[in-house]
Amino acid sequence: MPKPVVPEAQRRRRRPTRSGTVLSEELIVETALRMLREHGSTGLTARRLGLALDADPSTLYRYFRGMDDLTLAIGDALIGQALEGWAPTGQWRHDLREVGLRIHAAYVSHPQAAVLTASRVTGRANELAADEAVLDILRGAGFPLRDTVRIYHAFIDQTLAFAALDAASLALPSAALDADEDKWHSTYARLPADRYPRIAEAARLLTARMVTSAYPTALDMLLDSVDRQRPRRAAVSPERF
Amino acid sequence: MPKPVVPEAQRRRRRPTRSGTVLSEELIVETALRMLREHGSTGLTARRLGLALDADPSTLYRYFRGMDDLTLAIGDALIGQALEGWAPTGQWRHDLREVGLRIHAAYVSHPQAAVLTASRVTGRANELAADEAVLDILRGAGFPLRDTVRIYHAFIDQTLAFAALDAASLALPSAALDADEDKWHSTYARLPADRYPRIAEAARLLTARMVTSAYPTALDMLLDSVDRQRPRRAAVSPERF
DNA sequence: CGCATAAGGTCAATGGCGTTGGCATAAGGA
DNA sequence: TCCTTATGCCAACGCCATTGACCTTATGCG
What we know:
The structure is a homodimer.
Chain A: H1 25-39, H2 46-53, H3 67-82, H4 92-109, H5 111-117, H6 125-140, H7 145-174, H8 183-186, H9 197-209, H10 215-229
Helix pairs in contact in A: 1-2, 1-3, 3-4, 3-5, 3-6, 4-6, 4-7, 4-10, 5-7, 6-7, 7-10
Chain A binds a DNA duplex through residues 2-3, 6, 11-18, 23, 45-47, 55-59, 61-62, 66-67.
């Protein structure tokens, strides 16, 4: 049986580390986010995190069951950060769009962390709050339960999928050793036009466009589709007459 | 300077390993795919792969520059497998849909491998061929270069993004130790209805739906959008009259 | 106010990992 | 048949996460 982890809410004794810093779940997650940004998505290790916190690596196991548990906490922090200060306006389309863009932006602003967490289900507080919020927007807009769940599924998966993909390509260049960095220039831009005529003719445009995200476009397409399926009031809308 | 890697095409001497098996790039990738399926996405290690091949782990470095290079080769094999036997029909929408579904299906059929590779740019032969094919479909349909590149970007990113996300959730249950497996049942289905009313009312539908992929729907939405932007011939299409 | 308790920090060790440099051997061209 | 060198093997290095035992000190109770 490993050491039990005390939930943050029940911590009483806050014993400072050898060098005087007082640990907390929040401080550890913040430090981990900083390390990920500085050392890349593979640069978060228990040893280094301990070093950065001036604590023994094994101390982390007083706060998290393991590195995976810490990873989930990091992911939940990103979601929390995404919806910090957000409040629904009651206009479902605007609210949904805002939630999607905020979540996507939060992940993309911490790409190295997002790579580790975007496709995980944390089951922690902030994730639950976000899910509840999306479902509430749709239910509040009058969608029946089945449609709500279907739309929620497409919406959240599309958001997380693009967040993960965009984060992955942003995270690679920071780890300068990863050779993927300039593969578009070193490989795609130099292909022989006789064997790859279509790539060759598009190379310049490709290298320019592939660095941007296709998420906003895809999101609006989804919202358009949702709008068309939305339950209307009995009255016919005025524009028709 | 590390040992140089001899390209597969130039290999002359095929010296058998101690136990008699003859190595090749293809055999190594196949074995790696099998190990990934059996041991999960974190179960591919140089030592284990060497064991499975009856070869010393360091031998792998005669074929790949490192585990990362091997990972890219695995990804390229998935793309190759996706388009194996495929040929364009000349109907752009049908062809594009087929390519998307094939790539998605290939990744999802090797989820543990897909997790490692779906968001990587390999720059290898099969990837280049797939990109060339997609660009050719769009150019052949008459799209100008700029539109072609824009559509290609949205199409390929959406395909890979969903492939990565769907693969990730499929890969987790196989590694039975990962606790994410039944988080939907252990957490979401048991939330208190007073704090999470929307999740609670949708729990049953959510657990049923979240195991399926939203990709086909999203793909058709994209194709609809593309269809509306397609350049028409000068003549007005017959249905209008 | 002081003491017992146990929370929480530290230490040392284990077994795994990727990777490398040196070495041995046998394949295949001459 | 011999030489060259491609290719397999070995041993070692410095990482990694994780654990169990130990120590120390903050806290709550009497």
